[in-house]
Specification:
Blueprint (H helix, E strand, L loop, with lengths): L10 H31 L1 H11 L1 H4 L7 H14 L5 H33 L5 H5 L1 H18 L1 H8 L3 H25 L5 H26 L7 H25 L1 H9 L2 H37 L3 H28 L1 H8 L9 H25 L2
Helix pairs in contact: 1-2, 1-9, 1-13, 2-13, 4-5, 4-8, 4-11, 4-13, 5-7, 7-10, 8-9, 9-10, 13-14, 13-16, 14-16
Membrane topology: Multi-pass membrane protein
InterPro entries: Poly_Biosynth_Transport
Subcellular location: Cell membrane
């Protein structure tokens, strides 16, 4: 009688599966919350809210590249079966300093930056734009610094824990939004920002605090800080350039589009973002795997993984775009009813091309950063 052999699923695909679920939950929360936030804030205030949430990506560099630097060191030291506690402790020290410096700087610059960024709205909204900008910035700085938690867990091949923390934080934020929708339907932009994003900022910081207690007695020398910062500078430059390219649309929107057009664009990109999140989940899980293959010099296996991911990613984007186009009327009516979503098929083709290029670029970006 033949013995049945269990198929061994690669660990990065198991982590990716949990990441898919997490990303779907997060993107779903962001989509469903549009309906509630529009009813709470109204069209113009929600457009301001949308532009402020665009700052989240800009402040993802609040970790100054330390998260990616630490992730690679952990992967390398794990491959050599060495302790990496000193690197975690040093990284937390650097991130705390970054948080203090950035928060202090934004305290003085928020009024000026908000006057440049939020220019095409009513005087009432512009008069309060400085406080909106500062609150959003502080929340997103905490989120950017706290993201090191996910880097640590993915490097330890415990990405499922990172995915649980991330998904749970957004679910809590969504529940806050639902609560204020029914209990305080006339809430301000500040209240909406805190409701949705405070859990996303707080949960990773709590985990970092417990992790710091665990490594508290570990000795750290100056060279550890130097090594982390030396490698992080490359990640910081790379991330900054990527953000400038990918987030310029928000700057253009803030200066040129009406509130209705901002909402239309944002909802469309959120829908495509939900689709693309599924692919980025694979890349996130694949990062430490590529780092370990590089340390072990298994180049043939590394090349094969990258090739298959790009082909699969482009096919997935094409299939996803077709699905969105066929069901666009139904999808848009659920997310934000009352907004005129008259979008031509050519726009969907262009978005498919754009996200296919993103598949190529993001895959090689992940590969380069794992080196």
């Amino acid at each position: 009688m033949r013995k049945l052999r269990l198929v061994r699923i690669p660990r990065h695909l198991i982590i990716a599966a949990s990441s898919w679920l997490s990303k779907i939950i997060i993107a779903g929360v962001q989509l469903v919350s549009v309906k509630f936030l529009l009813e709470i804030l109204g069209e113009e205030s929600y457009a301001v809210f949308t532009l402020l949430t665009g700052l989240l990506v800009w402040f993802s560099i609040a970790d100054i590249g330390i998260g990616s630097s630490l992730q690679n060191y952990i992967s390398e030291l794990k491959a050599d079966r060495k302790s990496y506690d000193a690197y975690i402790k040093a990284a937390i020290h650097i991130l705390f300093a970054s948080l203090i410096i950035l928060s202090s700087t934004l305290f003085f610059l928020s009024d000026k930056l908000s006057s440049l960024y939020l220019t095409s709205f009513s005087d009432e909204l512009k008069n309060n734009s400085g406080s909106y900008f500062f609150i959003a910035s502080i929340l997103f700085i905490f989120i950017g610094v706290g993201s090191v938690v996910y880097k640590i867990l993915f490097a330890e091949l415990l990405g499922w824990k990172a995915n649980i923390i991330n998904a749970l934080s957004y679910l809590l934020g969504f529940l806050d939004v639902v609560a204020i929708h029914y209990l305080m339907p006339d809430s301000s932009i500040t209240f909406a920002l805190v409701a949705l994003y405070a859990p996303v900022a707080i949960l990773p910081i709590i985990y970092i605090s417990f992790r710091y207690i665990y490594v508290l007695k570990t000795k750290v020398n100056f060279n550890t800080y130097k090594l982390l910062l030396s490698r992080s500078s490359g990640f910081l430059i790379f991330s900054s350039l990527s953000i400038i390219v990918l987030q310029t649309d928000y700057i253009v929107m803030s200066q040129k589009l009406s509130a209705a057009d901002i909402i239309k664009y944002t909802v469309t990109m959120k829908i495509f973002g939900l689709m693309f999140f599924i692919y980025t989940a694979v890349l996130q899980a694949l990062w430490p795997v590529c780092a370990e293959l590089r340390v072990k010099m298994q180049w043939r296996k590394l090349h094969r993984i990258i090739f298959l991911n790009i082909i699969g990613g482009v096919f997935f984007v094409g299939l996803g775009t077709l699905f969105i186009y066929v069901l666009k009327d139904y999808i848009y009516s659920i997310i934000a009813n009352g907004i005129d979503y008259n979008i031509s098929g050519a726009v969907f083709v262009l978005l498919a091309v754009y996200f296919s290029i993103r598949v190529w670029c993001d895959t090689f970006a992940m590969l380069l950063q794992s080196m």
